[in-house]
Every structure is written in structure tokens, then in C-alpha cells.
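Q: How would the C-alpha cells look for this protein?
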Amino acid sequence: TLVSNTATPSAPRPDDAPPRDATSSAATSGTLTSASWPGQQTSSSSAPPPRTISVQRIRPATLPRAKLTTHLRGVGRELLDSAETSGRVVLLTAPPPDADLLARAAVELASQVSASRPGEVVLGETDFERPRLRELLNVEVPFGKGLSEQIHGVVRSAQSGPWTVMDADLGFHLLLEGRIRSPGLLWSQEFPEVVDALRRRYRLVLLIAPARPSPVDEQALRDVCDAALAISSTSTSEQVRAAHWRRLEDKVIRTLRLPG
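A: Here is the predicted structure in C-alpha cell form.
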């Protein structure tokens, strides 16, 4: 059952969740797969064709006033270059105190890159507990089209059809959370399927990481991202920063200290 604030995870997430096969990592093979839960039956021979991406137009978004332009100058180009070498899926992460800063920086980065590559960038958020982009951009997500809602629909009813992203006249597309959310689905086998579909469709996929991911959520994000961009406020202590990024150290291609 979908809920507005919190919910019991729709897919099991035991603390001893089995690690995904290393060969499924995008950084290793470029093909995303997911681990099976104990007792889950899988068959590659009968697997349906991969879902595609459908774009739905919504009411134009309102971009917040750019405050980080000078600090982000050149970063968009670096991300595009990285997309050609290190991979197309970049995770944007920040310590919990800097979650709002992370959302603003993500929007400005997507806007910067799409200025030269319109329609080739998608910005998504994986924080199903406390998403921020809907309010930041002043948009309404159509019913059933939030990321966790779409995953939930597939998990519960095996519904078919493409994954839906939104076009709000920003130059880049959006995959957001709506008012109704279903937390606990990053470890579902459908989450890497969504990212794989985005990887095939876009030159650059920017994903906002949860502010407080669980260990299994962190592993799920590691499995699908090719690189990570670590963002923090200049006022955030080094200790807090280091603790938050410890598990992503080998993925981080750049760290940014930005004014809060």
C-alpha cells in the first residue's frame, strides 16, 4: 500500500541481504542486473524485453534562482566527459545536513549540462523518504508517476509498459517522487532496471542519493552508478563528510565544497 510519508518496505530488505554479483555492476560490464532473493525463481530465457522510457509533459517547472553558478562552472563539462569514459550514471551525494544544498546543486548542474545538450540529461531522486525536487521546482507529479510509485506498481502487479519521466520545459527531464511514495524499494530488482533504461536513453543520468541511506540502499546505489560527485557545505565538518562518503570513496570523481 502506497503511503504519504512512511511505509513498510514493499520488497524485503533484510540486514543480511545477499550482495549483488560483481559482474552485474555497471562499472564492470555495463549491463545492470539484480540479485534474487532466496527462493525467488528467475529465468533469463523467459525474461521480457527491457522496458523503454516514455516522456510525459507536465506543467512547466519554476527554476530556483541560481546561487551556485560560479562554484559549479566547468563541473557540467567534466560530467559529460566522464559520461564518455567512466560511465553515464552519476550519483550526487551529500551529508544529511546538506540535503537541501544537494537538491539545489543537482538542479543547477542539470540545467548547466542541458544548455549544451538539451534533452540528453535526466535528473532523478532516490530519496524516497524525504524527496525535495517536487517542492523545489514547484511541480506536480502525475498520480502513479513518481519513481517509487512506478516501481511499486511493477512489484505488486507486474504491470507492463515503459518507465515514465517528465518534461517540465527545463531542457532536461525529471524522474521525481510525488505526494504519494513507497519507501524501501531501492533494493528491488526493478530499481536497476529503471536505471538501465535511463542509461540507454540519456547521455547523462544524474541521481540524487538519499540523505540517510541504509547499508543495503547504499549497496543498491553502488551497483548502478558509474561515478559519484560528493557535495557538502563549507560549514560541514570534515568528520561528518568523511563518515558519509566512506562507502563511496572509490566511486567519487570529485568533491565540491559549496556555500550553504
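Residues 99-114 form the longest helix (16 residues).

Strands lie at 53-57, 89-93, 121-125, 163-167, 173-175, 204-208, 227-233, 252-258.

Upvote if useful.
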